[in-house]
Amino acid sequence: MKEILIGILASMFFAVTFILNRSMELEGGSWIWSSSLRFLFMFPFLLLIVLLRHNLKQVINEMLKQPFQWLGWSFVGFVLFYASLTYAAAYGPGWLVAGTWQLTIVAGTLLGPFFFTIIQTEDGPLKIRNKLQLKALCISLIILIGVSLIQLQKANNLTIFELIIGILPVIIAAFAYPLGNRKMMEVCDGKLDTFQRVFGMTLASLPFWLVISIFGLIEVGGPTSSQLLQSFIVAICSGVIATTLFFIATDRVKGEQGKLAAVEATQSTQVLFVMIGEVLLLSTPLPSGLAIVGLFIIILGMFLHSYFTKNIKSKQNSIRLYKSE
What we know:
The chain has 13 helices and two strands; from the N terminus they run H-H-H-H-H-H-E-E-H-H-H-H-H-H-H. The chain has helices spanning 2-26, 31-52, 56-65, 67-88, 94-101, 103-111, 134-155, 160-188, 194-219, 225-252, 257-265, 270-281, 290-324, and strands spanning 116-121, 124-129. A two-stranded antiparallel ribbon has the order 1-2. The chain crosses the membrane at residues 5-24, 30-50, 70-89, 101-120, 132-152, 158-177, 198-218, 230-249, 261-282, 288-308. It comes from Aquibacillus halophilus.
């Protein structure tokens, strides 16, 4: 399935976020700048891409039709998601945050029934509420077990308060990202391509990032030159490349909840990329014991998602062949 390969490639670039966010925290940089600078740096690049493709006017027109929808869901999908994730980076190594972030796979599956699929019938378009994908949920829960095992290694050295303040923001981010992404796919309704949608969401989130930046100037002062450089790298690798690849993959399967859950499950491979990157770049100790078992369970869950999706596709093809006969 091409979408799964695209999702894994996106995960590799997403991993840069966790590695460099942790690096910036270790150097004394504030999460306020780690979050806001990514999107402030993303904007000109996305603007240039949209301008070169001559479809800026279409994005603006679509945004003006539903401004509050764009502002609200862009806040959820970009601001609430990323501010929470960077805040959590202050409380543990990147692989730990990345491991907890895999809760987004379960979140994506649970959100399915809150959305509808439009089916064309003889009487016109019919809106049908999506069903909860029980197999996808069970596989996602396997991944959740892996996440829990990863957390156990760190839990012994943390107070209850530290656990809550380190994990709760990631849980918020895990639900905010797929919710914002899926809602914006509904708002766009196929009228905008992936680049236009990412640009539109970035533009709609700018007022919030500017407010956060002003707060940062008052509270912690300006960012260091090192944080500026690392935030720029995150903006390109994660904000532009990874986000675009991931949105392309989800756009291609947006009408099929099982496949959408499988694409979202590819994010589990981030843990491996983050772990390797932190060991090489930040000299972070390798996880051990139950954490290693947890990592393998997460990877197993991702492969099961892939296998389950492949079976769905095979069955759908068989039904089409039967009908054509």
